[in-house]
Amino acid sequence: MADTILHGAVVVTMDGELRVLRDGAVAVAGDRIAAVGPAADVLAAFPSAARTLDLGGRIVLPGRRPRPRLIGLFPPPRNVA
Q: What CATH number does residue 40 fall under?
């Protein structure tokens, strides 16, 4: 169960892969990250989320230290090919 889903974002995973998901999403349950992935997958996995926020292309850096939490939310990049 997720309380909030942040979608429509550029998500940079802060794991060992440092993936960049151009249409990414982060599901948050309480003060924990429940899921990170493509927006369609995360939204489908948590259809009953209490709140969904379209971030309009902003950059999200979900963190995992010292415990999972969001560590950054930045404006959309400009002039990105």
A: 2.30.40.10
Full pLDDT tens readout for the chain, 81 residues: 899 999 999 998 877 888 899 999 999 998 888 999 999 999 999 999 999 999 999 888 887 555 545 545 566 666 554
- From residue 28, how far is each of 24, 38, 44, 77, 79 by CA, in Å? 13, 15, 14, 23, 30
Q: Is residue 52 part of a domain?
A: yes
Domain interval for residue 32: 4-74
pTM of the model: 0.78
Q: How many domains does the chain have?
A: 1
